[in-house]
Design a protein that fits this description.
heterodimer, A: 5-stranded mixed sheet, 4 helices, globular, B: Heat Shock Protein 90
């Protein structure tokens, strides 16, 4: 498999990373996701990493990049399902993934995205009323 | 004295994935805890990527070592690349020569029990790590 599948669920995109990614695969996911956000005007991106046995600085950077690129494209990113051993290692490595929202599982991650998207919509309504 | 020893080449990013899996298999063979396995595999990933990207490829030698009743996994990464001119600087958090976050060397050092680096400009770099049970 040369691409990680991206599923469209309403106005969100859902990615489940299930393979031990080599670096090029991680890079292509970054590109594919930004293209899909723009194409579908998605408001949220959920990346589930519960099958990932390690997150090294490269994958950590990829996650941070995706979150930053999504923000620029007006979408929110939530990373879900990080294994405890991965979290311990990542922090010791020196990466605490600042700027990335996380949730324990996909269900909570989707709730979180719903909240963000709802809050954004409300804020827009208020802005609209002022004009 | 090594209980067993094996050398693997690192020439592509698929090889980086492969040596990660080897580190995992060996770590689980000596029954390292899940957290310690994860630390060793993560350090392996960082160092193997350095070997590939900065060293232009090289090799990883895996050894199962023994110190009295303790067992450990010793991994040696070698390349014949350009080497590192200033090791002290390279080991600082956040120091990077390129597109990384500068956590590869300094971060992996924190993930293992022993860390040794030798580098000669123009001749290459050797990094040795050990994680004890």
């Amino acid at each position: 498999m040369d691409r990680i599948p991206i599923l469209k669920v309403g106005d969100c995109l859902l990615v489940t990373i299930q393979v031990d990614m080599h670096d090029e695969l991680a890079m292509s996911l970054q590109e594919d996701l930004t293209m899909q956000i723009a194409k579908h005007a998605s408001r949220g991106v959920l990346i589930d990493i519960s099958s990932l046995e390690i997150v090294d600085s490269f994958i950590g950077r990829m996650l941070a990049n995706i979150a930053a690129m999504s923000r620029v494209l007006d979408a929110q990113t939530v990373v879900t399902g990080m294994q405890p051993a991965v979290a311990i290692t990542l922090v010791e490595l020196g990466m605490s993934l600042p700027g990335i929202r996380t949730a324990l599982n996909v269900e909570r991650g989707m709730e979180l995205l719903r909240e963000f998207i709802g809050r954004d919509a409300e804020a827009e309504d208020v802005d609209g009323a002022e004009e | 004295m090594a209980l067993k020893s094996e050398t693997y080449t690192i020439r592509s990013s698929d090889d980086v994935v492969r040596v990660r899996q080897i580190a995992r298999a060996w770590a689980s063979e000596i029954k390292l805890s899940l957290v310690d396995q994860t630390k060793l595999v993560t350090a392996t990933s960082e160092l193997a990527r350095n070997t590939l990207e900065h060293g232009g490829g090289g090799a990883m030698t895996a050894e199962m070592v023994e110190n009295g009743i303790r067992r450990g996994i010793k991994l040696t990464f070698t390349d014949q690349g350009p080497g590192i001119a200033n090791l002290e600087l390279a080991l600082q958090d956040g120091y990077t020569t390129g597109n990384g976050m500068g956590l590869g060397l300094s971060g992996s050092k924190r993930l293992v029990n022993e860390f040794d680096i030798k580098s000669e400009p123009g001749l290459g770099t050797t990094v040795t790590i050990v994680r004890w049970k």
